[in-house]
Write a structure and sequence with these properties.
This protein is mainly alpha-helical. The chain has a domain of about 110 residues: Cytochrome Bc1 Complex, Chain D, domain 2, CATH 1.10.760. The chain is built from four helices and no strands.
Length: about 160
């Protein structure tokens, strides 16, 4: 009750409580792998240890299997929802307009899907691939009859 009373008094002016920090929610890495497949992230990103088709020539983003230990969950969330904020230079990830070549999927995914996709990326273990490799990994993934990034219903993601 004391903690609640303290939070209530800190919020009485509708300000942010002192020391507050956004905490990224835990997600489901198995569901996140399905989001990875749905968005066809493998078109540009290799995940060593997974059975995804190789990235398409000229559409290569960073290899993702060893990224979990390098970045906090919030970094992945920002890279997914706002890919142009941080673009590694000299790797060909930047488009001629200065933005990231990675398209925005914000109109095509739910918040829960982003949470789960981040959980999948955080669960990758280097060249071992996905968590519980075999249990999490599904059958090999193709491009479901279309090339590039397509959303359900044939919509193109917004760039």
């Amino acid at each position: 009750m004391v903690a609640w009373a303290q939070q209530a008094s800190e919020h009485s002016g509708h300000g942010t409580p002192q020391g507050w920090r956004f905490s990224w929610p835990a997600g489901n890495p198995i569901a996140g792998r399905e989001v990875f497949i749905k968005l066809e992230c493998n078109t540009c990103h290799e995940v060593k240890g997974e059975q995804f088709p190789a990235p398409e020539p000229g559409k290569v983003g960073p290899e993702l299997s060893s990224m979990a230990s390098l970045h906090p969950a919030e970094y992945f969330a920002e890279a997914i929802t706002n890919p142009s904020v941080v673009v590694e230079e000299g790797k060909g990830y930047r488009a001629p307009d200065g933005q990231s070549k990675m398209p925005s999927y914000n109109e095509l995914v739910t918040v829960q899907e982003v949470i789960d996709l981040v959980a999948y990326l955080k669960a990758l273990k280097g060249e071992e691939g996905a968590p519980g490799h075999g249990a999490v990994s599904g059958p090999p993934v193709g491009h479901e009859g279309h090339g590039g990034h397509m959303a359900p219903g044939g919509q193109e993601p917004q760039h």
